[in-house]
Predict the structure.
Amino acid sequence: MKETERISFEQSKLKKKACLLIGFLFYSFLAFSQNLQKADSALQIYESNQQLPDSINQQLLYIIYAEHPVPDSRIKYAQIAYDLAIKTNDLNWKSKSLLNIGQALKSKGDLEKSLNIFFKYLEDAKKEGQDRRIALAYSSIGSVYRVQENFSNALTYYNLAIGKLRELADSTNLATSLMNTGELYRINHILDTALLYFDESGKIFDLKNFALGKAYNLGNVGLVYAEQGKDKLAEEYINDATKILEGLGDQYPIAVYNTYMADIYKDNEDLPKAIMYAYRSYQIAKKDGLKEQIRDASLKLSELYEIAKDYKNAFHYQKQYIEYRDSINNEETIRKMADLRTEYEVSQKQAEVDLLNQRQKTYLSVGGALVLLIMALGSLAFVYHKRNEEKKATNKILEVQKKELELQREELERLNSTKDRFFSIISHDLRGPVNAFKGLSSILKLDLEEGKLDEIPAIVERIETSASQLSFLLNNLLDWAVNQQGQFPFMPEKIELLKLIKDVSAVSQNMADSKEISLNVEIDKDITVLADRNSVRAIVRNLVNNALKFTKNGGSITIAASGSDGKALISISDSGIGIPPEKMKSLFQLNGGKSTVGTRGEKGLGLGLRLVYEFAQMNNGIVSVESREGLGTTFKVLLPLYSSDADDT
């Protein structure tokens, strides 16, 4: 299905599903309205008193979690509480904190992590024989499947929760599960059954004087009436629910109901009010980081702006909807969640099989001697320990391999990005000399035809300049490419710096003369280094060329060298325009998007300085730079001095 057809289908489906899925899941221990002021007060006490008992710290962390409106903060402090419970071996707070983490992850939209937490919570509750926690786990798991629209699994776990809660006579949590189950029937358009569930849950909430539950129940009944086309009645119920929630400071359901109010006003052809409600929902969701609601509010705004023929905003919110939809509801997430459930069920079956096998072994062992029993148990313990150690070793190997693959992936991405930038710069800088050749050849041909021979020397000089620039660029490209492939021939030898630098400066003298630049060499003839000749030549050539490029007519360049402490210091100083401070950090990196331009329009792509950096490292050297804008620049290269000991090795 094409993307536009898919969005159109989901827009129509959104109306049928009453804008979005509510399913507000909460429990008796989580029945609060979030209050940032209370959370900040508790946080201040927690952070300013380091000597408080662990039990008080747990209560403060719970208040911070319960009252804080931001999901990321709730996850953070629930995790701190969980770690503290592990440290103090407090099973009660460990259980509460684990469930709190799962709830906060779900509200943020991290459904896979949330489901993983809830299955772990269920497993722990079964091991400890805690029926109330088992019921809460069932309901929590059902709520995640509900958000993913896996209605069959959601209904299965909700019914398990209802059955367990009826046994426990836990009326408040029973009402919650009844309401969530009614919501499942509503979104499957079994509206009469949905109203029956909402009626029972509403009576319990009224009996318990539970305002938050009453608000959610009123909102869900309003959605049923909307499905039945009773818009006026639906609006009354939703407005009543919104008033209660505003008093409690609970923003998430208000955002949801605002989206539905937008749908009602859209049906009544009141687009300004519809857009107002949809945008209000979007703002609330953005502020609190609620991924599901950002997704649905974006879709609603896109639909409304399209009707209003405001295609710019329609496209903006359509694009945002696609991003959040794919983030929350992609195939990989669904597959992983299905795998989690399968793994859990398989582990449960395996646990049952292991239990039966253990009982059988026990019955067989009763008739044996005590010594044989001890030996059998010892053997089992040894095998278990060995397998456990093997498993740990395998997991460590897999973890190391995973990290290595991650590092390799990041390196490949970095290299690919560098390659793209590099080719972009090359295409830009090769175009100049090639176009110059093309233009100059046309002019030369025309002058020859017209007999204008006096203009030919100037044209030839320009051709020579372009050819020099192109040759210099291609030499650098070749050196860099060979070095990147690890095939650059590295043959360290004894090099007399004075002779090598004079050879390089002689090649650059023509360019210096053309700009009336004084090119000075001040080197002691006795200085020798142990390095690869070709790479050192490339270092000096690129630094001299760089100095010529950024030095104005009449300036000066000095190449000097000295030796001490086993190192030769080569410095190339110019009286040029200098380097801006903001470019110093990335001077030796290929991270630019365009070439640099010299004092006479000379172009360069920064590859020369990158070669200087890489070749200096290859020769066990270091390159550094000092520069002041308007005063000039000095590049310094440290290379190892030649020693007679090198001939012996």
